[in-house]
């Protein structure tokens, strides 16, 4: 039987960030400090059971090393296509196992700890709310700009889940484009086809094709063209590269003007590789957002960069979920 | 001092529906039955204080008549541009007084009862949740199609409010149009410019102008052309009138496909004068919605008509707010 002392000592949570290649995990305290971390490969296991058992061994070793054995309150997991509502990973194309994977219950069984899973963007929003810029913010939208475009919507202090856990798929809102950008989802002109790293490369290729203007991007081999190389060229003053980010920011800002009408947010918090372009993307985003916004929201919504460190954000975000879980 | 018996007898709420011409009010029980109702003119009072005092007299007479004096738990008010968060009517162009009007506190003072106010669309959503189709639904979006287009968003069982009470202004989401429909808000191509009663008339005028096809609408004097006359012509088989509703439904369905990505709703509930067109608008809406939806939401979201009676909906919606108020 637990006594009060025992309850009080459960001052840590375990955050797990499952990626296509590696699975990282960390013991985190309530201030968002990582007490210890480690990782195992996601690939190379016989099946998901084998993966979970390998993870269990590695986590136990970490708990031993950090002296936090018996002090873990709950587990939070961020994983691609993870659904908080069902506790399953659904239709993940980046993982080596068939979906759906009942990850939450597999981990609960292995660790005897309450476990909550969600997708990367929701985890990022939870991390911001628990430890980052959004501490104290009750209404914000986290937008992750990376390989894809994800989002986590917090309204009235609550991370929206929706009827089946699929709230906040703002990367797949259709935007006002030319109707010719095929998305991975099979439709055309999703926000993601413009504002993801891939979308930015596509915009660059189009702009290079439609213009004769000099650009250092012309000397970059096609397969090496990336959001990062384009960003660096823009920072060196390359006009086409700057135009690419200008256009990307404009599409994002127009979309965010519309998004405001849903949840009347105080802020957008942007995060991910593409967000590293900083003002190159945020300035045109802000201008387009203000230009297209209903008067009720004008000059009221901040655009912030995530305050979580890159190397820690996914882990912290995952761990943040765990604080909301009831203890078993 | 109140005793338990007294508390238990507070089984009624007062709903007030403030319109530009009349203000209706009713005593409502927990089953959504109207025990008694009456109204006073909204216009013709010296100032807002005079209006409140006249309302107080008329309400007291109704309570006397229905034997519910001392049995009212709280007051809920639906009014144009009312903000639940501030308790004020903000920037209402339909009312005879200058905004902002601190209506909630004026009524609390006059009646010594907790008072909650909100706009018409949010009130409709609250009414559906308390007494209508949405009883049991935790994720739905109410869309009111009338003079304007309004919305109330319920996600995870909670009517979204947002940072300043302006969540759910979906009538002012910009849609993919030709960019030439000026909205009352000063921007172009808001959903409302297509799917409100006025938007439908505008579509009809455009379609009549762009075609030589026979239509009974050509014999209707321009000032008599309304969403209702167009609907009746469509019901009689008029091709242009049918095309008008087809187009309107398509724009609405495309917008609703995007809206699903916010809150993963189980249903859209449509309400208001334009919704009376029934399948004329809902069938093309459904088709366009399914065609444009992300696979996650396809075949999962119902379109329902509001189950509240027209003559009672606004009053019931307003009264529904009151059930959530703490007793004083």
Walk me through the structure.
The structure is a homodimer of 328-residue chains. Chain A is α/β, with parallel strands linked by helices and 328 residues long. Chain A is 38% helix and 19% strand. Chain A has ten helices and twelve strands. Chain A has a five-stranded mixed sheet. In chain A, strand 2 and strand 3 form a beta hairpin. In chain A, helix 2 crosses helix 3, helix 4 crosses helix 10 and helix 6 crosses helix 8. The A-B interface holds A 138-139, 153, 155-156, 158, 160-170, 172-174, 176, 185-187, 254, 257-259, 261-266, 292, 294-297, 300 and B 138-139, 153, 155-156, 158, 160-170, 172-174, 176, 185-187, 254, 257-259, 261-266, 292, 294-297, 300.
Task: From the structure above, extract its key features.
homodimer; 328 residues; alpha/beta; 5-stranded mixed sheet; 10 helices; 12 strands; globular; disordered N terminus
Note the beta-strand portion of chain A: 15-25%
Radius of gyration of chain A: 21 Å
Number of strands of chain A: 12
N- and C-termini, Cα separation of chain A: 12 Å
Strand count, sense and barrel status of the largest sheet of chain A are: 5 strands, mixed
Helix fraction of chain A by DSSP (H/I, runs of at least 4): 25-40%
Shape of chain A: globular
Structural class of chain A: alpha/beta
With strands numbered from the N-terminus, the spatial order across the biggest sheet of chain A is: 3-2-1-4-7
Considering residues with a beta carbon less than 8 A from a beta carbon on another chain, report the largest interface and each chain's count: A-B, 40 and 40 residues
How would you state the average pLDDT of chain A, rounded?
Answer: 92
Which oligomeric state applies? homodimer
Order of helices and strands of chain A: HEEEHEEEHEHEEEHHHHEHEH
Our count of helices of chain A gives 10
Low-confidence stretches of chain A: 1-8
């Amino acid at each position: 039987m637990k006594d009060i002392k025992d309850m009080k000592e459960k001052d840590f949570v375990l955050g797990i960030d499952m990626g296509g290649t590696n699975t990282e995990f960390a013991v985190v305290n309530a201030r968002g400090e990582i007490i210890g971390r480690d990782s195992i490969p996601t690939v190379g296991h016989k099946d998901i059971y084998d993966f979970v058992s390998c993870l269990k061994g590695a986590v136990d070793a970490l708990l031993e090393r950090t002296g936090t054995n018996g002090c873990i309150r709950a587990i939070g997991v961020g994983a691609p296509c993870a659904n908080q509502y069902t506790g399953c990973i659904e239709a993940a194309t980046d993982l080596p196992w068939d979906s759906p994977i009942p990850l939450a219950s597999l981990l609960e069984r292995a660790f005897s700890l309450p476990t909550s899973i969600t997708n990367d963007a929701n985890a990022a929003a939870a991390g911001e709310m628990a430890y980052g810029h959004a501490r104290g913010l009750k209404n914000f939208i986290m937008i992750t700009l990376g390989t894809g475009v994800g989002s986590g919507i917090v309204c009235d202090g609550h991370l929206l889940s929706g009827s089946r856990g699929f709230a906040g798929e703002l990367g797949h809102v259709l935007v006002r484009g030319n109707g010719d950008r095929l998305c991975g989802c099979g439709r055309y002109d999703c926000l993601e086809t413009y504002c993801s790293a891939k979308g930015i490369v596509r915009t660059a290729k189009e702009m290079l094709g439609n213009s004769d203007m000099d650009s250092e991007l012309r000397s970059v081999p096609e397969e090496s063209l990336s959001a990062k190389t384009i960003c660096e060229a823009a920072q060196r003053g390359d006009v086409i590269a700057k135009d690419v980010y200008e256009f990307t920011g404009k599409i994002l800002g127009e979309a965010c003007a519309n998004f405001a009408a849903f949840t009347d947010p105080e802020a957008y918090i942007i995060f991910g590789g593409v967000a590293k372009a900083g003002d190159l993307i945020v300035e045109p985003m802000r201008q387009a957002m203000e230009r297209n916004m209903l008067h009720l929201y004008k000059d009221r919504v901040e655009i912030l960069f995530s305050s979580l460190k890159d190397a820690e954000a996914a882990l912290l975000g995952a761990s943040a979920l765990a604080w909301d879980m009831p203890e078993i």
